[in-house]
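Table S2 (text version). Query chain:
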Amino acid sequence: SPNASFAIGKIDDEIIGISARSKEEIDVGEIMRLLSGGGNAHSAATQLENTTIDSAKTKLLTLVKPKNLK
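Corresponding structure-token output:
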């Protein structure tokens, strides 16, 4: 089955970072580009300003779930 991992962390008081990795069919670069980030199909990241970890997680999940993890 397809695998991807996402790590969300606080970079500073105003920036939340999301790091994404994939070994299979999931294009994490596409997901991170939708969040104004970048990278390639297997390694990507983004930084979100003026948000919280919970809000960043919600944004990420709304992008991942509709894709049915293709």
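Notes on Table S2: The longest strand covers residues 4-12. The CA atoms of residues 5 and 34 lie 17 Å apart.
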